[in-house]
């Protein structure tokens, strides 16, 4: 890729994305720039990724053809006010801040600004993330292909209509917390049944990883894979009955629904 990439904000998610870009070879270190209001964050980012640090947000804007806006949502209005006078129609802005719609950025950067809104999740930190993205009308098909290629360096990446990004936030954005709660409970159950703590957590985590990989690789419905391990009058069926009685599926559906509704509230 010949375009220069900038990160305005150099936290964990920005670092994960930049490392994916560089380690995949899609972006060279000398084409990667960053600035963070906290000097120590910028230094950590540069050390990890090999990026070139800029002295200010406006300097970064001049360097980057593709600018990732990676600050917290509450910091975004101030950042946009700072850079908007120097913004031009050629820059592609990519925001990973939750809750702020494309319309919000267009008000600051101009109706013709090229804006891509991305909802990543924390497994991007280990290269197994999910990133959904939507774009303003000014973004070209080739630019969307480029963004998809960049995001795929840290996991799955798919374009979606912006109206679905709240649902993505509720499912894959908040989902790692829900999965960790299930994993924690499974580990506790293993300990209760006599397994050492480290072994219980490892076995539970690997069971989740392996099962998820079966779903992805086979393309089969989770219910089919569940039925294959559920023998008549066997141990699994007894456990499944308890999960149904305790409302596991209803609880997960309600959790994703609640997170989605909250994301929609924040977007407004």
How is this structure best described in words?
With about 270 residues, this protein is of the alpha/beta class. About 55% of the residues lie in helices and about 15% in strands. It has twelve helices and eight strands. It has helices at about 10-25, 40-50, 55-65, 75-85, 100-110, 140-150, 165-175, 175-190, 195-220, 220-230, 235-245, 250-265; strands at about 5-10, 30-35, 50-55, 65-70, 90-95, 115-120, 130-135, 155-160. It has an eight-stranded mixed β-sheet, sandwiched between helices. The protein is elongated.
The percent of residues in helical segments reads 40-55%
User: What is the percentage of strand-forming residues?
Assistant: 5-15%
For the largest beta sheet, what order do the strands appear in spatially? 3-2-1-4-5-6-7-8
Over the alpha carbons, how many angstroms does the gyration radius reach?
21 Å
Low-confidence spans: pLDDT under 50, at least 5 residues? none
Largest sheet: 8 strands, mixed
* Global shape: elongated
**Overall strand count:** 8
Determine the mean pLDDT: 96
| Secondary-structure element series | EHEHEHEHEHEEHEHHHHHH
Measured distance between first and last alpha carbons: 36 Å
Number of discrete helical segments: 12
Structural class of the helix and strand makeup? alpha/beta
């Amino acid at each position: 890729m010949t375009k220069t990439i900038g990160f305005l904000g150099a936290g964990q998610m920005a670092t994960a994305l930049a490392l994916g870009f560089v380690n995949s070879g899609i972006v060279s270190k000398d084409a990667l720039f960053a600035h963070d209001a906290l000097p120590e964050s910028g230094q950590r980012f540069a050390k990890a990724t090999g990026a070139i640090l800029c002295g200010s947000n406006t300097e970064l804007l001049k360097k980057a053809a593709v600018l990732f806006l990676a600050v917290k949502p509450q910091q975004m209005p101030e950042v946009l006010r700072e850079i908007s006078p120097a913004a031009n129609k050629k820059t592609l802005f990519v925001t990973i801040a939750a809750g702020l719609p494309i319309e919000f950025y267009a008000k600051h950067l101009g109706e013709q600004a090229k804006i891509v809104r991305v909802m990543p999740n924390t497994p991007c930190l280990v290269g197994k993330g999910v990133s959904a993205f939507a774009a303003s009308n000014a973004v070209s098909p080739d630019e969307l292909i480029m963004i998809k290629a960049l995001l795929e360096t840290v996991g799955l990446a798919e374009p979606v209509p912006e109206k679905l990004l709240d649902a993505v936030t509720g499912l894959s954005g908040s989902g790692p917390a829900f999965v960790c709660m299930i994993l924690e409970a499974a580990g506790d159950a293993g300990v209760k049944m006599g397994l050492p703590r480290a072994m219980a957590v490892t076995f539970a985590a690997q069971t989740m990883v392996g099962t998820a990989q079966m779903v992805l690789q086979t393309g089969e419905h989770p219910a089919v894979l569940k039925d294959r391990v559920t023998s008549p009058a066997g141990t699994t069926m007894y456990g499944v009955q308890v999960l149904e009685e305790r409302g596991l599926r209803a609880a997960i559906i309600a959790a994703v629904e609640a997170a989605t509704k909250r994301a929609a509230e924040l977007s407004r």
